[in-house]
Amino acid sequence: MCTPNSTDAVSGLHVPFHITFGLSSLYVLSGVTQPLLMELAKQAGLADKSCQIYMQAHYLGTASVGLLALNEEHLSWKTTFKTGGVATIDIIAQTMNYSGATMAGPTIFAIIYSSVTIWCALLSRVLLKREMSCLQWISIAIVFVGLGVAGFSSLDLGPEVAIGTALVAFGSALHALMYVLSEAIMNNEKEVVSAKKYCAVYGYVACSAYFLWQMFYTRYHFNELILEPMQTAGTTYGYALAILFAIAFMSLVHSVTFFHTVKYVPGGSTSAGVLKALQAVLVFAATSLAFCHRFGGEEMCFNVNSMLSLCIVVAGVVLFGKATEIGEHKKINPLPEVELEAAREYHQV
Fold first, then answer.
1. CA separation, residue 241 to residues 9, 106, 191 (Å)
2. pTM to 2 decimals?
3. Confidence bin at 225 (pLDDT 50/70/90)
4. Which helix (H) or strand (E) holds 44?
5. Around Cβ 279, how many Cβ atoms within 10 Å?
6. In the chain, where does DSSP find H-type helix?
7. Where is average pLDDT lowest: 6-15, 58-67, 83-92, 206-215?
8. First CA to last CA across the chain, in angstroms?
Protein backbone atom coordinates (compact mmCIF):
# COMPACT_ATOMS: atom_id res chain seq x y z
CA MET A 1 0.00 0.00 0.00
CA CYS A 2 1.36 3.38 -0.93
CA THR A 3 0.99 6.55 1.05
CA PRO A 4 -1.11 9.34 -0.48
CA ASN A 5 -0.08 12.85 -1.39
CA SER A 6 -1.71 15.04 1.24
CA THR A 7 -2.19 17.81 -1.33
CA ASP A 8 -4.63 15.52 -3.11
CA ALA A 9 -6.87 15.39 -0.10
CA VAL A 10 -8.85 18.47 -1.07
CA SER A 11 -11.13 18.02 -4.01
CA GLY A 12 -14.15 19.81 -5.28
CA LEU A 13 -15.56 16.63 -6.75
CA HIS A 14 -18.65 15.37 -4.99
CA VAL A 15 -18.73 11.59 -4.66
CA PRO A 16 -21.99 9.88 -3.68
CA PHE A 17 -21.99 8.33 -0.21
CA HIS A 18 -22.76 4.82 -1.48
CA ILE A 19 -19.67 4.87 -3.71
CA THR A 20 -17.41 6.06 -0.91
CA PHE A 21 -18.91 3.51 1.49
CA GLY A 22 -18.49 0.72 -1.06
CA LEU A 23 -14.87 1.55 -1.86
CA SER A 24 -14.00 1.98 1.81
CA SER A 25 -15.53 -1.42 2.48
CA LEU A 26 -13.37 -2.88 -0.30
CA TYR A 27 -10.34 -1.23 1.30
CA VAL A 28 -11.06 -2.98 4.60
CA LEU A 29 -11.97 -6.28 2.92
CA SER A 30 -8.79 -6.36 0.83
CA GLY A 31 -6.72 -5.57 3.91
CA VAL A 32 -8.36 -8.47 5.74
CA THR A 33 -7.90 -10.98 2.91
CA GLN A 34 -4.19 -10.33 2.32
CA PRO A 35 -2.82 -12.11 5.45
CA LEU A 36 -5.43 -14.86 5.01
CA LEU A 37 -4.28 -15.42 1.43
CA MET A 38 -0.68 -15.61 2.64
CA GLU A 39 -1.73 -18.38 5.01
CA LEU A 40 -3.44 -20.23 2.14
CA ALA A 41 -0.24 -19.86 0.11
CA LYS A 42 1.67 -21.44 2.99
CA GLN A 43 -0.73 -24.38 3.23
CA ALA A 44 -0.51 -24.85 -0.56
CA GLY A 45 3.30 -25.07 -0.49
CA LEU A 46 3.83 -21.68 -2.15
CA ALA A 47 5.32 -19.80 0.77
CA ASP A 48 8.99 -20.74 0.73
CA LYS A 49 10.68 -17.77 2.40
CA SER A 50 13.75 -17.87 0.18
CA CYS A 51 11.80 -17.87 -3.11
CA GLN A 52 9.31 -15.14 -2.12
CA ILE A 53 7.03 -16.07 -5.03
CA TYR A 54 4.00 -14.73 -3.16
CA MET A 55 5.68 -11.31 -2.82
CA GLN A 56 6.20 -11.25 -6.59
CA ALA A 57 2.42 -11.54 -6.93
CA HIS A 58 1.85 -8.90 -4.24
CA TYR A 59 3.99 -6.26 -5.94
CA LEU A 60 2.64 -7.15 -9.37
CA GLY A 61 -0.71 -5.96 -8.05
CA THR A 62 0.82 -2.75 -6.66
CA ALA A 63 2.59 -2.03 -9.96
CA SER A 64 -0.74 -2.42 -11.79
CA VAL A 65 -1.78 0.93 -10.28
CA GLY A 66 0.31 2.36 -13.12
CA LEU A 67 -2.55 1.53 -15.49
CA LEU A 68 -4.52 4.28 -13.75
CA ALA A 69 -1.69 6.82 -14.11
CA LEU A 70 -0.89 6.52 -17.82
CA ASN A 71 -1.99 10.07 -18.59
CA GLU A 72 -0.13 11.72 -15.71
CA GLU A 73 3.26 13.43 -15.91
CA HIS A 74 6.39 11.33 -15.50
CA LEU A 75 8.48 11.80 -12.38
CA SER A 76 11.86 13.47 -12.71
CA TRP A 77 14.91 11.21 -12.69
CA LYS A 78 15.89 12.53 -9.26
CA THR A 79 12.49 11.72 -7.78
CA THR A 80 12.44 8.35 -9.55
CA PHE A 81 15.82 7.51 -8.02
CA LYS A 82 14.58 8.50 -4.54
CA THR A 83 11.42 6.47 -5.07
CA GLY A 84 13.54 3.47 -5.97
CA GLY A 85 15.45 3.87 -2.71
CA VAL A 86 12.21 3.98 -0.72
CA ALA A 87 10.94 0.93 -2.61
CA THR A 88 14.12 -0.94 -1.65
CA ILE A 89 13.43 -0.22 2.02
CA ASP A 90 9.86 -1.43 1.65
CA ILE A 91 10.97 -4.60 -0.16
CA ILE A 92 12.88 -5.50 3.01
CA ALA A 93 9.96 -4.41 5.19
CA GLN A 94 7.25 -6.34 3.37
CA THR A 95 9.44 -9.40 3.00
CA MET A 96 9.80 -9.39 6.78
CA ASN A 97 6.08 -8.70 7.29
CA TYR A 98 4.67 -11.43 5.08
CA SER A 99 7.37 -13.98 5.88
CA GLY A 100 6.57 -13.29 9.52
CA ALA A 101 2.87 -13.68 8.77
CA THR A 102 3.42 -17.19 7.39
CA MET A 103 5.31 -18.08 10.60
CA ALA A 104 3.22 -16.32 13.25
CA GLY A 105 -0.20 -16.64 11.61
CA PRO A 106 -2.69 -13.99 10.42
CA THR A 107 -3.98 -13.09 13.92
CA ILE A 108 -0.65 -12.01 15.40
CA PHE A 109 0.25 -10.38 12.09
CA ALA A 110 -2.92 -8.27 12.09
CA ILE A 111 -2.45 -7.14 15.70
CA ILE A 112 1.16 -6.03 15.24
CA TYR A 113 0.75 -4.67 11.72
CA SER A 114 -2.01 -2.32 12.90
CA SER A 115 0.74 -0.44 14.78
CA VAL A 116 2.07 1.00 11.49
CA THR A 117 0.06 4.18 12.18
CA ILE A 118 1.89 4.61 15.50
CA TRP A 119 5.32 3.95 14.01
CA CYS A 120 4.54 6.60 11.38
CA ALA A 121 3.84 9.12 14.13
CA LEU A 122 7.08 8.35 15.97
CA LEU A 123 9.21 8.50 12.82
CA SER A 124 7.48 11.70 11.71
CA ARG A 125 8.39 13.23 15.06
CA VAL A 126 12.04 12.24 14.61
CA LEU A 127 12.51 12.86 10.87
CA LEU A 128 9.92 15.54 10.04
CA LYS A 129 10.00 17.29 13.44
CA ARG A 130 6.22 17.01 13.90
CA GLU A 131 4.78 18.14 17.20
CA MET A 132 2.81 15.58 19.20
CA SER A 133 0.27 16.16 21.92
CA CYS A 134 0.21 14.51 25.34
CA LEU A 135 -2.82 12.44 24.30
CA GLN A 136 -0.93 11.15 21.25
CA TRP A 137 2.01 10.07 23.42
CA ILE A 138 -0.41 8.29 25.78
CA SER A 139 -2.03 6.43 22.86
CA ILE A 140 1.41 5.39 21.59
CA ALA A 141 2.26 4.01 25.03
CA ILE A 142 -1.02 2.06 25.04
CA VAL A 143 -0.24 0.51 21.64
CA PHE A 144 3.21 -0.58 22.75
CA VAL A 145 1.72 -2.21 25.85
CA GLY A 146 -0.57 -4.19 23.51
CA LEU A 147 2.37 -5.14 21.30
CA GLY A 148 4.26 -6.27 24.40
CA VAL A 149 1.39 -8.55 25.36
CA ALA A 150 1.37 -10.03 21.83
CA GLY A 151 5.14 -10.49 21.87
CA PHE A 152 5.35 -12.22 25.23
CA SER A 153 2.35 -14.45 24.53
CA SER A 154 3.96 -15.58 21.25
CA LEU A 155 6.87 -17.06 23.25
CA ASP A 156 4.50 -19.73 24.57
CA LEU A 157 3.51 -20.76 21.02
CA GLY A 158 6.96 -21.98 19.94
CA PRO A 159 10.15 -20.51 18.45
CA GLU A 160 8.77 -20.22 14.89
CA VAL A 161 5.82 -18.08 16.04
CA ALA A 162 8.14 -15.96 18.21
CA ILE A 163 10.53 -15.35 15.29
CA GLY A 164 7.59 -14.53 13.02
CA THR A 165 6.27 -12.04 15.59
CA ALA A 166 9.67 -10.32 15.74
CA LEU A 167 9.85 -10.15 11.94
CA VAL A 168 6.43 -8.50 11.72
CA ALA A 169 7.34 -6.02 14.49
CA PHE A 170 10.53 -4.89 12.73
CA GLY A 171 8.86 -5.04 9.32
CA SER A 172 6.00 -2.81 10.49
CA ALA A 173 8.48 -0.18 11.70
CA LEU A 174 10.36 -0.28 8.39
CA HIS A 175 7.08 -0.10 6.46
CA ALA A 176 6.19 3.01 8.46
CA LEU A 177 9.57 4.49 7.51
CA MET A 178 8.51 4.05 3.87
CA TYR A 179 5.38 6.11 4.61
CA VAL A 180 7.35 8.96 6.17
CA LEU A 181 10.01 9.06 3.44
CA SER A 182 7.29 8.90 0.79
CA GLU A 183 5.51 11.85 2.36
CA ALA A 184 8.74 13.84 2.32
CA ILE A 185 9.23 13.07 -1.39
CA MET A 186 5.65 13.72 -2.48
CA ASN A 187 5.20 16.93 -0.51
CA ASN A 188 8.34 18.65 -1.75
CA GLU A 189 7.86 22.18 -3.11
CA LYS A 190 9.95 21.69 -6.27
CA GLU A 191 7.89 19.04 -8.05
CA VAL A 192 4.24 18.01 -8.09
CA VAL A 193 4.23 14.27 -7.46
CA SER A 194 1.03 12.38 -8.21
CA ALA A 195 0.17 9.75 -5.59
CA LYS A 196 -0.82 7.22 -8.26
CA LYS A 197 2.31 7.82 -10.32
CA TYR A 198 4.48 7.55 -7.20
CA CYS A 199 2.79 4.31 -6.20
CA ALA A 200 3.21 2.96 -9.74
CA VAL A 201 6.95 3.73 -9.88
CA TYR A 202 7.39 2.26 -6.40
CA GLY A 203 5.53 -0.86 -7.57
CA TYR A 204 7.59 -1.12 -10.78
CA VAL A 205 10.86 -1.03 -8.84
CA ALA A 206 9.76 -3.61 -6.27
CA CYS A 207 8.16 -5.88 -8.87
CA SER A 208 11.31 -5.74 -11.05
CA ALA A 209 13.54 -6.56 -8.08
CA TYR A 210 11.48 -9.62 -7.20
CA PHE A 211 11.35 -10.68 -10.86
CA LEU A 212 15.16 -10.65 -11.01
CA TRP A 213 15.20 -12.77 -7.85
CA GLN A 214 12.84 -15.27 -9.49
CA MET A 215 15.10 -15.42 -12.56
CA PHE A 216 18.44 -15.77 -10.75
CA TYR A 217 17.38 -17.83 -7.72
CA THR A 218 13.89 -19.33 -7.73
CA ARG A 219 14.04 -20.93 -11.17
CA TYR A 220 17.11 -22.94 -10.15
CA HIS A 221 15.35 -24.21 -7.01
CA PHE A 222 11.79 -24.29 -8.33
CA ASN A 223 11.39 -28.08 -8.19
CA GLU A 224 12.65 -28.62 -4.65
CA LEU A 225 11.23 -25.46 -3.03
CA ILE A 226 7.95 -24.95 -4.91
CA LEU A 227 6.85 -28.02 -6.92
CA GLU A 228 7.69 -30.67 -4.31
CA PRO A 229 5.91 -28.81 -1.45
CA MET A 230 2.94 -28.29 -3.80
CA GLN A 231 2.79 -32.01 -4.53
CA THR A 232 3.07 -32.84 -0.81
CA ALA A 233 0.19 -30.47 -0.07
CA GLY A 234 -1.86 -31.84 -3.00
CA THR A 235 -1.96 -28.43 -4.70
CA THR A 236 -2.86 -28.33 -8.39
CA TYR A 237 -1.35 -25.81 -10.81
CA GLY A 238 -4.75 -24.20 -11.22
CA TYR A 239 -5.22 -23.74 -7.47
CA ALA A 240 -1.70 -22.33 -7.08
CA LEU A 241 -2.26 -19.81 -9.87
CA ALA A 242 -5.63 -18.87 -8.36
CA ILE A 243 -3.99 -18.07 -4.99
CA LEU A 244 -1.22 -16.00 -6.60
CA PHE A 245 -3.74 -14.16 -8.79
CA ALA A 246 -5.89 -13.45 -5.72
CA ILE A 247 -2.86 -12.02 -3.88
CA ALA A 248 -2.04 -9.75 -6.85
CA PHE A 249 -5.66 -8.67 -7.33
CA MET A 250 -6.22 -7.85 -3.65
CA SER A 251 -2.98 -5.86 -3.61
CA LEU A 252 -4.28 -3.82 -6.56
CA VAL A 253 -7.71 -3.33 -4.95
CA HIS A 254 -6.10 -2.31 -1.65
CA SER A 255 -3.91 0.31 -3.34
CA VAL A 256 -6.68 1.79 -5.50
CA THR A 257 -9.31 1.96 -2.76
CA PHE A 258 -6.74 3.40 -0.35
CA PHE A 259 -6.51 6.57 -2.45
CA HIS A 260 -10.26 7.04 -2.47
CA THR A 261 -10.62 6.30 1.25
CA VAL A 262 -8.01 8.86 2.26
CA LYS A 263 -9.39 11.43 -0.14
CA TYR A 264 -13.13 11.31 0.53
CA VAL A 265 -13.96 9.52 3.80
CA PRO A 266 -14.93 12.04 6.53
CA GLY A 267 -12.95 12.04 9.73
CA GLY A 268 -9.44 12.11 8.32
CA SER A 269 -6.92 10.42 10.60
CA THR A 270 -9.66 9.17 12.93
CA SER A 271 -11.27 7.24 10.08
CA ALA A 272 -7.88 5.86 9.01
CA GLY A 273 -7.19 4.65 12.54
CA VAL A 274 -10.62 3.10 12.92
CA LEU A 275 -10.34 1.28 9.57
CA LYS A 276 -6.89 -0.04 10.45
CA ALA A 277 -8.22 -1.27 13.80
CA LEU A 278 -11.29 -2.76 12.12
CA GLN A 279 -9.02 -4.75 9.79
CA ALA A 280 -7.20 -6.24 12.79
CA VAL A 281 -10.49 -7.22 14.45
CA LEU A 282 -11.87 -8.83 11.28
CA VAL A 283 -8.64 -10.76 10.60
CA PHE A 284 -8.73 -11.99 14.20
CA ALA A 285 -12.30 -13.23 13.78
CA ALA A 286 -11.82 -14.67 10.28
CA THR A 287 -8.67 -16.57 11.27
CA SER A 288 -10.37 -18.20 14.24
CA LEU A 289 -13.35 -19.23 12.11
CA ALA A 290 -11.44 -20.42 9.04
CA PHE A 291 -8.17 -21.86 10.37
CA CYS A 292 -8.52 -22.79 14.05
CA HIS A 293 -7.89 -26.56 14.52
CA ARG A 294 -7.71 -26.92 10.73
CA PHE A 295 -4.32 -25.41 9.90
CA GLY A 296 -1.30 -24.48 11.97
CA GLY A 297 -1.35 -24.50 15.76
CA GLU A 298 -2.79 -22.50 18.65
CA GLU A 299 -1.69 -19.23 17.01
CA MET A 300 -4.69 -19.64 14.70
CA CYS A 301 -7.20 -19.85 17.55
CA PHE A 302 -8.87 -17.46 19.95
CA ASN A 303 -7.15 -17.12 23.30
CA VAL A 304 -7.20 -14.64 26.16
CA ASN A 305 -3.74 -13.17 25.48
CA SER A 306 -4.38 -12.47 21.79
CA MET A 307 -7.80 -11.00 22.59
CA LEU A 308 -6.31 -8.77 25.29
CA SER A 309 -3.51 -7.64 22.96
CA LEU A 310 -6.00 -6.92 20.18
CA CYS A 311 -8.23 -4.80 22.43
CA ILE A 312 -5.30 -2.77 23.78
CA VAL A 313 -3.78 -2.11 20.34
CA VAL A 314 -7.13 -1.23 18.77
CA ALA A 315 -7.91 1.17 21.64
CA GLY A 316 -4.52 2.86 21.24
CA VAL A 317 -4.81 3.22 17.46
CA VAL A 318 -8.33 4.67 17.65
CA LEU A 319 -7.32 7.03 20.46
CA PHE A 320 -4.31 8.18 18.46
CA GLY A 321 -6.53 8.91 15.45
CA LYS A 322 -8.89 10.95 17.62
CA ALA A 323 -6.01 12.84 19.24
CA THR A 324 -4.59 13.64 15.79
CA GLU A 325 -7.96 14.91 14.58
CA ILE A 326 -8.26 17.16 17.64
CA GLY A 327 -4.79 18.56 16.96
CA GLU A 328 -5.57 19.22 13.30
CA HIS A 329 -8.88 20.89 14.25
CA LYS A 330 -7.05 23.26 16.60
CA LYS A 331 -4.61 24.20 13.83
CA ILE A 332 -7.39 24.86 11.32
CA ASN A 333 -9.70 26.66 13.77
CA PRO A 334 -7.54 28.68 16.17
CA LEU A 335 -10.07 31.54 16.46
CA PRO A 336 -11.68 30.53 19.77
CA GLU A 337 -8.32 30.75 21.56
CA VAL A 338 -7.52 34.03 19.82
CA GLU A 339 -10.87 35.45 20.83
CA LEU A 340 -10.30 34.29 24.41
CA GLU A 341 -6.95 36.08 24.53
CA ALA A 342 -8.53 39.23 23.10
CA ALA A 343 -11.21 39.10 25.77
CA ARG A 344 -8.56 38.83 28.46
CA GLU A 345 -6.70 41.84 27.10
CA TYR A 346 -9.96 43.80 26.91
CA HIS A 347 -10.77 43.15 30.58
CA GLN A 348 -7.22 44.03 31.60
CA VAL A 349 -7.66 47.43 29.90
1. 37, 21, 40
2. 0.76
3. very high
4. none
5. 23
6. 17-43, 53-63, 77-104, 106-113, 116-127, 134-154, 159-186, 195-216, 222, 228-233, 237-264, 269-291, 304-332, 335-348
7. 6-15
8. 57
